[in-house]
Amino acid sequence: MNPVIIVITGNPGVGKHTVSKKLAEDIGYTLIDINKVVLQDMDKGSNDYDDDTVQKKEVDDTFDVDTDLIKEKIAKEVSREGKDDDGGSYNRGKKNIIIVGHLAPYVLSKNQVDKVIVLRKSPYDLLKVYKERNYSEKKAKDNAGSEILGVIANDARAEFADAIIQLDTTGKPVQEIIQQIKKSIMIGHKVANKKEEEDSTDKATTEAIDWLSLVAQKNDLRKFFGY
Q1: Which pLDDT score is estimated for 190?
Q2: What domains appear along the chain, each with residue ranges and CATH number?
């Protein structure tokens, strides 16, 4: 069986890093953080970024990201076979991987992944998260506005098609989100834990999410899109 590659993406603040780390521990997958790959590349290979630092320095449009280079680095990580720096062949074995990052739709392709989970969150909740992170008003509104318009979700759908599942994380504990993701993995008969697959009777489906209608009904468009 080929290794399983799951992507967890979404706007900054939706909980993807917290969820991905816990999920990787639960199901024994290797975790690849795209932010960490970007930051290490910008610091010429430094490995001094722990999880807290990576989350605080979430890569955004203020970073000059070479997406072509990041694509190459991620492709090497997810490929089972390739060439090392000396031109020799290597085989990474059948390791299952979770890739996390909001840049996923721009540095991965459909043929590289099995399932893409797009985490979503109420823009009202995101503004609270961004305030805690000391985002500027413009940065907070830009990110919340992106969530309202579903930019990452739409880009993920364009790139990965029917491989994606949307999940609303608003007000949900981490463990509940993880259980929903596990069910989505099981549906594809890819989960390693056979007992969990046999015990599961629910089917995870993509959630219909329309923040724009919610914000318009509350007459709050200026709250998110006005400066």
Answers
A1: 44
A2: 5-225 (3.40.50.300)
